[in-house]
TrEMBL record:
Pfam families: LRR_6 (PF13516). The lineage of its organism: Eukaryota, Metazoa, Spiralia, Gnathifera, Rotifera. InterPro entries: Leu-rich_rpt (IPR001611), LRR-containing (IPR052394), LRR_dom_sf (IPR032675). This is Uncharacterized protein.
Amino acid sequence: MDPDTFEALANGLKSNKTITIIDIRTNRFDAGGVRALGNSLRFNQGVTEVELNTNKAGGEGAEAFFCALQTIRTIQKLALRRYDITSSSARMLVDALKVNKTLTELRLQVNFLRDGGTQQLAEALKVNNILTTLKFYYNFIGSEGMKAIAEALKVNRKLTSIHILWSRTDESGIVALAEALKLNNLIFHY
Protein backbone atom coordinates (compact mmCIF):
# COMPACT_ATOMS: atom_id res chain seq x y z
CA MET A 1 0.00 0.00 0.00
CA ASP A 2 1.52 3.33 -1.01
CA PRO A 3 1.83 6.13 1.60
CA ASP A 4 -0.88 8.35 0.07
CA THR A 5 -3.40 5.51 0.03
CA PHE A 6 -2.61 4.63 3.62
CA GLU A 7 -2.87 8.27 4.69
CA ALA A 8 -6.33 8.46 3.08
CA LEU A 9 -7.39 5.28 4.90
CA ALA A 10 -6.15 6.63 8.22
CA ASN A 11 -7.97 9.94 7.72
CA GLY A 12 -11.19 8.11 6.88
CA LEU A 13 -10.99 6.19 10.15
CA LYS A 14 -10.93 9.33 12.30
CA SER A 15 -14.68 9.79 12.22
CA ASN A 16 -15.88 6.33 11.17
CA LYS A 17 -18.04 4.71 13.85
CA THR A 18 -18.96 1.42 12.13
CA ILE A 19 -15.60 -0.27 11.46
CA THR A 20 -14.60 -2.39 14.49
CA ILE A 21 -11.72 -4.49 13.09
CA ILE A 22 -8.76 -3.26 11.07
CA ASP A 23 -6.74 -6.06 9.49
CA ILE A 24 -3.91 -4.64 7.41
CA ARG A 25 -1.41 -7.45 7.62
CA THR A 26 1.46 -7.74 5.16
CA ASN A 27 0.96 -4.42 3.40
CA ARG A 28 4.53 -3.15 3.80
CA PHE A 29 3.54 0.34 4.80
CA ASP A 30 6.17 2.60 6.30
CA ALA A 31 6.58 4.43 9.61
CA GLY A 32 4.58 7.40 8.33
CA GLY A 33 1.62 5.14 7.58
CA VAL A 34 1.70 3.61 11.06
CA ARG A 35 1.96 7.07 12.61
CA ALA A 36 -1.08 8.21 10.60
CA LEU A 37 -3.04 5.12 11.69
CA GLY A 38 -2.15 5.66 15.35
CA ASN A 39 -3.14 9.30 15.19
CA SER A 40 -6.48 8.52 13.53
CA LEU A 41 -7.30 5.85 16.13
CA ARG A 42 -6.96 8.47 18.86
CA PHE A 43 -10.16 10.00 17.45
CA ASN A 44 -11.96 6.84 16.32
CA GLN A 45 -14.56 5.48 18.74
CA GLY A 46 -15.38 2.15 17.07
CA VAL A 47 -12.23 0.13 16.32
CA THR A 48 -11.66 -2.58 18.92
CA GLU A 49 -9.19 -4.86 17.10
CA VAL A 50 -6.09 -4.03 15.04
CA GLU A 51 -3.93 -6.52 13.09
CA LEU A 52 -0.62 -5.04 11.93
CA ASN A 53 1.25 -8.31 11.47
CA THR A 54 4.22 -8.56 9.13
CA ASN A 55 4.39 -4.89 8.27
CA LYS A 56 7.92 -3.55 8.10
CA ALA A 57 7.33 -0.14 9.60
CA GLY A 58 10.46 -0.68 11.69
CA GLY A 59 11.25 0.68 15.11
CA GLU A 60 10.20 4.22 14.20
CA GLY A 61 6.75 3.06 13.09
CA ALA A 62 6.31 0.87 16.16
CA GLU A 63 7.33 3.73 18.45
CA ALA A 64 4.81 6.06 16.79
CA PHE A 65 1.99 3.54 17.16
CA PHE A 66 2.87 2.72 20.78
CA CYS A 67 2.94 6.41 21.63
CA ALA A 68 -0.59 6.72 20.22
CA LEU A 69 -1.65 3.56 22.10
CA GLN A 70 -1.17 5.46 25.36
CA THR A 71 -4.24 7.55 24.53
CA ILE A 72 -6.31 5.25 22.28
CA ARG A 73 -9.40 4.28 24.28
CA THR A 74 -11.11 1.56 22.22
CA ILE A 75 -8.61 -1.09 21.08
CA GLN A 76 -9.04 -4.35 22.98
CA LYS A 77 -6.96 -6.66 20.76
CA LEU A 78 -3.67 -5.81 19.09
CA ALA A 79 -1.66 -8.20 16.90
CA LEU A 80 1.95 -7.34 16.06
CA ARG A 81 3.41 -10.64 14.85
CA ARG A 82 6.68 -10.27 12.93
CA TYR A 83 6.63 -6.54 13.52
CA ASP A 84 10.35 -5.91 14.05
CA ILE A 85 9.96 -4.52 17.55
CA THR A 86 13.29 -3.11 18.67
CA SER A 87 14.57 -2.56 22.19
CA SER A 88 13.67 1.12 21.90
CA SER A 89 10.16 0.45 20.60
CA ALA A 90 9.70 -2.21 23.32
CA ARG A 91 10.23 0.61 25.84
CA MET A 92 7.43 2.61 24.17
CA LEU A 93 5.15 -0.46 24.31
CA VAL A 94 5.88 -0.83 28.02
CA ASP A 95 4.98 2.82 28.59
CA ALA A 96 1.70 2.32 26.70
CA LEU A 97 0.81 -0.85 28.63
CA LYS A 98 1.30 0.99 31.91
CA VAL A 99 -1.42 3.53 31.09
CA ASN A 100 -3.71 1.90 28.49
CA LYS A 101 -7.06 0.90 30.04
CA THR A 102 -8.68 -1.07 27.20
CA LEU A 103 -6.17 -3.53 25.69
CA THR A 104 -7.02 -7.07 26.84
CA GLU A 105 -5.14 -9.16 24.27
CA LEU A 106 -1.64 -8.58 22.90
CA ARG A 107 0.03 -10.81 20.32
CA LEU A 108 3.76 -10.28 19.87
CA GLN A 109 4.85 -13.53 18.25
CA VAL A 110 8.12 -13.69 16.30
CA ASN A 111 9.61 -10.35 17.31
CA PHE A 112 12.86 -11.67 18.80
CA LEU A 113 12.36 -9.72 22.02
CA ARG A 114 14.97 -11.91 23.75
CA ASP A 115 15.73 -11.24 27.41
CA GLY A 116 16.00 -7.45 27.17
CA GLY A 117 12.62 -6.87 25.55
CA THR A 118 10.99 -9.54 27.73
CA GLN A 119 12.32 -7.92 30.90
CA GLN A 120 10.82 -4.61 29.77
CA LEU A 121 7.49 -6.30 29.03
CA ALA A 122 7.53 -7.95 32.46
CA GLU A 123 7.93 -4.51 34.04
CA ALA A 124 4.66 -3.41 32.44
CA LEU A 125 2.87 -6.61 33.48
CA LYS A 126 3.55 -5.78 37.11
CA VAL A 127 1.32 -2.70 36.90
CA ASN A 128 -1.09 -3.48 34.05
CA ASN A 129 -4.38 -4.82 35.40
CA ILE A 130 -6.28 -4.91 32.09
CA LEU A 131 -4.38 -7.34 29.82
CA THR A 132 -5.79 -10.89 30.06
CA THR A 133 -4.03 -12.65 27.16
CA LEU A 134 -0.39 -12.37 26.09
CA LYS A 135 0.98 -14.37 23.17
CA PHE A 136 4.67 -13.91 22.62
CA TYR A 137 6.15 -17.15 21.44
CA TYR A 138 9.16 -17.35 19.10
CA ASN A 139 10.86 -14.48 20.90
CA PHE A 140 13.91 -16.46 22.03
CA ILE A 141 13.46 -15.72 25.71
CA GLY A 142 16.36 -16.82 27.89
CA SER A 143 16.51 -17.48 31.62
CA GLU A 144 16.69 -13.82 32.66
CA GLY A 145 13.64 -12.94 30.60
CA MET A 146 11.73 -15.94 31.94
CA LYS A 147 12.64 -15.00 35.52
CA ALA A 148 11.38 -11.47 34.89
CA ILE A 149 8.07 -12.84 33.57
CA ALA A 150 7.86 -15.10 36.64
CA GLU A 151 8.29 -12.12 38.96
CA ALA A 152 5.59 -10.20 37.09
CA LEU A 153 3.19 -13.14 37.35
CA LYS A 154 3.58 -13.15 41.12
CA VAL A 155 1.83 -9.77 41.29
CA ASN A 156 -0.33 -9.69 38.15
CA ARG A 157 -3.65 -11.43 38.84
CA LYS A 158 -5.51 -10.21 35.74
CA LEU A 159 -3.50 -12.09 33.10
CA THR A 160 -5.29 -15.39 32.52
CA SER A 161 -3.53 -16.77 29.45
CA ILE A 162 0.11 -16.52 28.46
CA HIS A 163 1.79 -18.24 25.52
CA ILE A 164 5.57 -18.63 25.62
CA LEU A 165 6.79 -21.18 23.09
CA TRP A 166 10.26 -21.58 21.68
CA SER A 167 12.07 -19.94 24.53
CA ARG A 168 15.72 -20.52 25.23
CA THR A 169 15.53 -20.68 28.98
CA ASP A 170 17.40 -23.13 31.16
CA GLU A 171 16.22 -24.92 34.30
CA SER A 172 16.47 -21.78 36.45
CA GLY A 173 13.93 -19.96 34.28
CA ILE A 174 11.53 -22.91 34.39
CA VAL A 175 11.87 -23.21 38.17
CA ALA A 176 11.16 -19.49 38.59
CA LEU A 177 8.10 -19.80 36.39
CA ALA A 178 6.87 -22.87 38.28
CA GLU A 179 7.16 -20.98 41.58
CA ALA A 180 5.20 -18.04 40.18
CA LEU A 181 2.45 -20.33 38.91
CA LYS A 182 1.94 -21.62 42.46
CA LEU A 183 0.74 -18.10 43.29
CA ASN A 184 -1.08 -17.39 40.06
CA ASN A 185 -3.61 -19.79 38.50
CA LEU A 186 -3.38 -18.55 34.93
CA ILE A 187 -3.55 -20.76 31.87
CA PHE A 188 -0.01 -21.16 30.66
CA HIS A 189 1.14 -22.40 27.27
CA TYR A 190 4.83 -23.24 27.10
